[in-house]
Automatic annotation (TrEMBL):
Compartments where located: Cell inner membrane; Cell membrane
Organism: Trinickia symbiotica
Protein name: ABC transporter permease
Keyword Transport part of the UniProt annotation: yes
PROSITE patterns linked to this entry: ABC_TM1
């Protein structure tokens, strides 16, 4: 005798049970997407509105008043010196941080002593302090040197104090992840001097951290306002300080057009950091290189 078992009802119940289990996960995923999109809109919409304000004839009338590049031309005519000044400060800051930060990061990574950890904490201290406090300290100590105080190098000094930790930490993070000691010992056994080892062994292996630190230093230097506002003079007004002045004393269209100029300078750097996969510690660039 053949026995036929009908499993249709059981299969249907199982399918409903599986669907019931997956439903909360779908709701959670949808909720996460909704929150993410809402946050993106909250952050991006004001930026878009600011950009549009710099391209409209009249901000209060909106796009209906027409589009124009008049405000961009006016900003460039009045403030192009601030643009080039910011680039000069960023370039000088980068050179100084490369010369001092790369050897410092390498030395801190090689040393395992408590003194090295103490020095590393001291280097990171300016990040924890407000920019105004760091600027005030520089003015108190070096403000008496009039020529230095009125020069562009005073702002560069402040930017180096603020950005040097990013270079040191980026280089130190990569140096700690690579067995440099073994590589250097191998090069030394072949007769390479310290300078030859540093140039041919150390620097190529530290390249991801150096690139990460360089991008971070330039980006932070161009956008730094608090410290620069305290240190600048009428002859050393950088891009962020000029941006604050335009919003405080001129039409909102000019201030928004100035914002567009600021975006044009900083966005390529931010995109480069994302495209190259680097961050302030240099770990993403290191993983990409190994991959």
């Amino acid at each position: 005798m053949n026995v036929i078992v009908d499993t249709t009802a059981g299969n249907g119940h199982g399918a409903r049970r599986i669907a019931h289990l997956f439903m909360p996960r779908r709701l959670i995923a949808l909720g996460q997407w909704a929150v993410t999109l809402a946050l993106c809109a909250f952050l991006i919409v004001p930026v878009v509105m600011s950009v549009m304000a710099g391209l409209t004839v009249n901000y209060f009338r909106g796009v209906s008043s027409g589009l124009t590049v008049r405000w961009l031309v006016e900003v460039w005519t009045q403030y192009h010196a601030s643009v080039f000044l910011s680039l000069e400060v960023a370039a000088a800051t980068l050179v100084v941080t490369l010369i001092t930060g790369v050897p410092a990061g390498y030395a801190l990574a090689r040393s395992k002593t408590r003194a090295a950890r103490f020095v590393e904490e001291l280097l990171v201290l300016p990040i924890a302090l407000p920019g105004l406090a760091s600027a005030l300290a520089l003015i108190v100590v070096y403000g008496g040197f009039t020529a230095f105080r009125m020069s562009l190098w005073f702002i560069v000094a402040g930017h180096v104090v603020f950005t040097l930790p990013f270079m040191v930490r980026a280089v130190a993070a990569v140096a700690a992840s690579v067995d440099l000691r073994t590589l250097e010992e191998g090069a030394a056994s072949l007769g390479a001097t310290f300078l030859e080892r540093f140039r041919t062994v150390v620097l190529p292996n530290l390249r991801p951290g150096i690139l990460a630190g360089a991008l971070a230093v330039v980006t932070l230097s161009i956008g730094e306002f608090n410290l620069t506002w305290m240190l600048h003079t009428p002859d050393t007004k950088t891009l962020p300080v000029g941006l604050a002045d335009t919003y405080a004393s001129l039409r909102i269209e000019i201030g928004s057009a100035y914002t567009i100029v600021f975006f044009v300078m900083t966005m390529p750097l931010l995109v480069a950091m994302q495209w190259l996969g680097v961050d302030a510690t240099g770990q993403r660039a290191l993983r990409r290189k190994r991959g």
